[in-house]
Amino acid sequence: MNSLIVTLxxxxxxxxxxxxxxxxxxxxxxxxxxxxxxxxxxKWMSGxxxxxxxMAVLFGAVTPFCACSTVPITLGFLQAGIPFGTVMSFVIxxxxxxxxxxxxxxxxxxxxxxxxFLVLTSAFAIIFGIILEKLGWADQVKNVRIKGSGYQxxxxxxxxxxxxxxxxxxxxxxxxxxxxxxxxxxxxxxxxYGYMPTDLLARIASPDNPFAVLIxxxxxxxxxIRVESAIPIGIALLGKGVSIGAVVAFIISGAGIxxxxxxxxxxxxKKKIIIAFVVIVFVMAVLSGLIFNMLL
Length: 296
Fold this sequence. Notes:
Layout: H1 2-35, H2 38-45, H3 51-62, H4 70-79, H5 84-93, H6 99-109, H7 111-134, H8 151-154, H9 160-195, H10 198-204, H11 212-220, H12 227-239, H13 244-256, H14 259-265, H15 271-295
Helix pairs in contact: 1-4, 1-9, 3-5, 3-7, 4-5, 5-7, 6-7, 6-12, 7-15, 9-14, 11-13, 11-15, 12-13, 13-15
């Protein structure tokens, strides 16, 4: 009964938070695109070589977005004509690092862990974004247009209240398009969250287990947790003897692969991108965990 109550509470809370976040952020993005010159935005995010990917990662690192709140921003970037690879670097990096996360890691796990976490997640996000661009997978986007959606040309009225209203209805339309995906994803995530005992991870991911990092990454994958929530769990697991590499792998996979996010991304991208995204975050989690264990 307690697990059922926790599950229902999680579902209601997360669903409410996602709804507010999605509509609010979508409205802000739509409104911002009415004021910001799209050519300047594209120029900023479309630097030569890895510059655009680096700028996308930096933007994701300084903004406090969880995995699901990156979806409306991703939609806005795609509609603004930002290169596909640059957008994917943002999608990979954004849920994993922000100023609060860096501060928490520094305070509870030390500055070496915080800096290492930032460097590794940023580097992998840039690399995989470039790879996806080189593979020519921009054609795997659906329901959005890569080459601009014409916010500024569509909105001729300059009055703020009118633009805000148009932005809100645009956001509401986007929300309705992904609503069913959100319901399914949050329901699955809530069931897993409510019925998976925390001690299970501590027993399986012992430092004596050579597959601890791999197992921790696999366990973290189906969970929907913000990095801020994962860090306290990681601290507790460290106290129970779990290796730092396994904790890092759990944090990255748990925060980077959110079932609600995957459900909503499925309304924007074709299956190939969704599978690639899961594989990328999983590989990033495992490699980062192994690197941490070797260095620390």
